[in-house]
UniProtKB/TrEMBL annotation, chains A, B:
PANTHER family named among the record's database cross-references: ASPARTOACYLASE, SUCCINYLGLUTAMATE DESUCCINYLASE
Protein's name in the database: Aspartoacylase
Class in the EC hierarchy, top level: hydrolase
Stored InterPro entries: AspA/AstE_fam, Aspartoacylase, AstE_AspA_cat, Aste_AspA_hybrid_dom
Keywords, alphabetical: Hydrolase, Metal-binding, Zinc
Keyword Iron among record annotations: no
Chain ranges of the AstE/AspA barrel-sandwich hybrid domain: 204-283
Domain Succinylglutamate desuccinylase/Aspartoacylase catalytic residue range list: 3-190
Length: 288, 288
């Protein structure tokens, strides 16, 4: 049973759509349709929200591993993570049945649900979301056991992320806000349907399983030699075939996709991965 | 005559398209078509570029007024402005004939040339740009004398800004990069044509004259009550008529444009104006 749900905004302080949804529900109440659930609205990183930045010292959404939670780091987000872990967790023995952590991206990923496992619960959730919100994407990051992920949402008994784009950091777009609200409400509706035993016979759905990160090509001085090709820009989750252009180099040449198979790129040109020089991530199409 | 031209990137450290164009031209040379001009490529705020932020202490593009340039402020950008004023200025007695300062915006403004005066020179420039790049917009900010503007470009004998969007901060989009390069090259081609006396009989063109800033509606706690309406989002320079929606409030109601006349909104939902709560700027249509 899913009784207690935490809805988290502001894990990254400049991702405004989740922050605004949580603020609105804090001030005006959760929609009455979900009154059978015990829902807590929660702001994760007030200081980063105030500063309108992703984080102050370190990425909060990479702190929730035992070695970080037990470290004596004085990074602001390391200290904050311990506090949040007590409030919504603790990881591994949480009283929160489901943590829904809301993010947005500069990539054109639409409304994307990120799940970290493909057990019965998450398969039912994915199928329910695709049935009720067909335009949503399901992204599966199950390359390792859930507890080994460093994400905030892993401190709940279960945890998922809502990721919506394209939206610049520090900007609130109505289209992104509405998609964020619709996907979050769909997840709450799923929880109620799951509790009522109504989610066991849903039709299979398609999802994208995370592959690897593809970096920008760099020169000897550590500078980028290319930008995302205009044919790839904004084409998140669109099939990318071998031979199709992925980078436009500053010398005017193009670099094409050299994979052996089709892939499904996403997080294309995400601003937050700027310093890492990650250009996009790959994915394979799977059936849940 | 326009002999010496400075092309500036990185006045705001997270506006990547101008930074990349300047870097590419520094490394590979200016296109040979412009060899009659003495062109200097210049990075304004290395520290902000390194940190991938707009500025460290204060907005560099608001520092170039006598009271700031003569102040003893220890803000990093106040100190930097004095240095840049010596290199490209000094303001009021500059050896640089034209400063082209390149910016980008999260607003959907396409390729926009911002001019600060409507004398013969700038009218010829605007007409030349519209003739050679019809998709470009001309934005006129001549509400006060040029020297009273705080912008970096005002330290040249003449100065203009290139402003291209939509592009998230810290992201380089190929479409925005290409528009930035095309507009900048068009300005250099204009300088050569102007020097050759070939720009005096160009047809009139339309431009937008800056009006006022419109703020987001706020509640008593200083929080926004609304977001940009989806019909206004991305509609920069599209005529906005009285009665058309501009804000979608979080209570579900809409706020409409109450001006007496049509206006031409721009800088709609610009991330950099987040803390100022500026929703957009108005403009009137003028003929140059």
């Amino acid at each position: 049973m899913i009784n207690s749900v935490a809805i988290v905004g502001g894990t990254h302080g400049n991702e405004t759509s989740g922050i605004q949804l949580v603020r609105n529900w804090m001030q005006n109440g959760i929609p009455s349709a979900f009154s059978s659930l015990n829902i807590r609205c929660f702001f994760a990183n007030h200081a980063a929200m105030q500063a309108n930045v992703r984080f102050l010292d370190e990425d909060l959404n990479r702190q929730f591993l035992p070695e970080r939670l037990n470290s004596d780091s004085d990074a602001k987000e390391a200290i904050l993570a311990k506090k949040i872990n007590q409030e919504l967790g603790p990881k591994g023995e949480s009283n929160t049945d489901l943590v829904i952590d809301i993010h947005n991206t500069t990539s054109h990923m639409g409304a994307t649900l990120i799940i970290l496992a493909t057990d019965d619960f998450h398969i039912q959730m994915a199928r329910y979301v695709k049935q009720h919100m067909p335009e949503a994407n399901i992204l599966v990051e199950d390359e390792k056991p859930v507890p080994e992920h460093p994400y905030l949402c892993t401190i709940g008994r279960r945890g998922v992320m809502v990721e919506v784009g394209a939206q610049p950091q520090g900007v609130l777009r109505e289209d992104v806000y509405q998609l964020t609200q619709t996907l979050t409400e769909t997840l709450l509706a799923f929880c109620q349907a799951y509790n009522d035993g109504k989610t066991q016979n849903l039709p299979e759905c398609e999802a994208f399983r995370l592959g690897v990160n593809i970096d920008f090509p760099m020169n000897e001085d550590g500078e980028r030699k290319a930008m995302i090709h205009h044919q790839l820009q904004d084409a998140d989750f669109v099939p990318l075939l071998p031979g199709q252009p992925i980078f436009r180099c500053f010398d005017g040449t193009d670099i094409t996709w050299q994979g052996e198979d089709v892939t499904y790129p996403h997080f294309i040109n995400e601003a937050a991965y700027h310093k890492l020089h990650v250009a996009f991530a790959t994915a394979s199409l799977v059936t849940l």
